[in-house]
Amino acid sequence: MWREYSSGYLKNNRATVVSIMTAAFISSLLLSLLGSLFYNMWKYEVERLRAEGDQYALMAMYLVRDANDEAPRMVFPFFLLIMGLASFSLIMILHNSFAVTMHTRIHQFGILSGIGATPKQIRRCLMQEAAFLCALPVVAGTFLGIVGSMGLLALIETLTREVEGRRPHVFGYHPLLLLFTFLATGITIGISAWLPARRLSVMTPLEAIKNTGELHLKRKRHSPLLSALFGVEGELAGNALKAQRRALRTASVSLLLSMTAFTLMQCFFTLSGISTRETYFEKYQDAWDIMVTVKDTGIEAFGETEQIREIPGVENVVMYQKAQAKRRITEEEMSEELKANGGFSHDSGKYVTREQDGFLVSAPIVILDDASFLAYCGQIGAPQRTDGVVIRNLICDVTNPDFRHPQYMPYIKGSRTTGLLEKNGGAGAEVPVLACTAEVPVLREEYATLDKYELVHFVPVNLWKEMENQTGGAGEDIFIRILCRKGTGLEESQAIQNEITGRLAGAYTIESENRIREYETNDRKIQGMMLVFGSFCVLLALIGVGNVFSNTFGFVRQRKREFARYLSVGMTPQELRKMFCIEVFVLAGRPMLWSLAVAFFAVGAMLRASYMEPAVFLDEAPFLPVGIFMLAIGGTVAFAYFLSWRRMRKINLTEVLRDDTMM
Description:
This protein is an alpha+beta fold. It has 22 helices and 14 strands. Strands 4-5-3-10-11-7-12-6-2-13-1-14 form a twelve-stranded mixed β-sheet, with helices on both faces. A two-stranded antiparallel sheet has the order 8-9. The chain is elongated.
């Protein structure tokens, strides 16, 4: 009997069938996608650690003693936590879908219970229907999730293929993961169906027969905004949405989260891209094309600089090394502008040490090869000698928090000599000053970023050989900044980089960077991250839209009765259609407005924190992708209501009001 009853119900309620199957399909797709992505992330880390020979870290990844076990063991607490949270969220969503469809049958089950059906039989009937409807969507969603993860990882692999240190990754999948995915999906759907089935089965026959399955408000609520905008139809639409508030909760939350997350993601990456471009790539695009770091080598021992300058396509080469020292500054040496700005009174003692005869500040040393130092002296109009230093005579206004637009002033007055001390004190070296200038060599360096009181000194190698022992020595590495000819593209700069590394790799341990490649790699990284985050935003939107379809199809019978009453008191079909359009406007428009409001305040806070002008951001603001995403969601919600309206627009008034059991 129960089989015939379920077969007849499912045959005559295709919309209900589609809504449940859609919810099950999306749930299995999400769980399969999460599981496959996590497994491949873990697999990539295992392959990387195995290649690096890190056995301890490898055993930690396996969580077993035998690091050579070729069959991965899916016993990862983090993975279980993520899957658990995803399953819990999906239970809330699926539970709502099952509850909506089961709620429409309360009247029928009351009649069946009145003629002898037991609660256990009703639960079994509902659970069998759920299993029958969800079996095929679960299988299809699981395998589509695997295919989707393959495509997503392949795209990420393409975007990050050129990233330095990135190992090629081959997609993998383990049979145990498939079994685990089916198990997690089955448990998720089972709990989701069992909760409303249990609640329905324990209702008394009298309660069930009296229940028509319609949604009512305990108290009618006035919707002033909708009434003012749309009149009576707006008031009725507002009450209809409030009556469905619990049923539409999943849709409201999912659509709000997806729109907000997508909008914030687009705004954040746009703002981050502008900031990175302004403060790094555009700032240094004329400063370097190739950077080579020579490890554990002193600048005085490196003799291949001239060979690098002779490579075809190389326009300018500067070799330099960095060292740290201290400099004592007296009141008399301080510039008048610095004194007027409070001198060192704004420092809490973290960067400036107060002494009886002055102030001890950091004095970083940049050691340039002699040829580059002489060219720098000629550039600033200083004597072209290698027996003195050049001082960067700038200090920013530390009272101005705008790091993007700092205000500078002279640091010290001009002098003939400068005292450089060791880090921990000492006599130091007394050297002549060739110039105090605001102009610095063209290097990929930033000065006085953390310590605003640094007084930077540029020193030639010739002088450094004499003063090195008195100032504590230089750093372990030297840096070679190479500028190529203007108009050099990626292929030509890559060839020059390969030529340089080929000449140096045999004798030194080196690392090299290519500005053009870094710029493209940075773009690919951002695209990859946006792709991953955007995919989860789309999944959230699909969950919300699926809930909308479930509700619009699941409440067709109740809404037919509702609309029949409205028609009986004189409303026209056009007014009912307007009411549906208002519901679409509210259901899709409310999360749009909320997400835009959140994005407005969030972007405002980010702009204030980064001191970026709003006009700069607005020139590149992601209006198009955000608009397309929101319009796609709004259009899909409207389509769900359109399909529901097509089923409801031809209402037989007499039949609807007479037949309480009409489906």
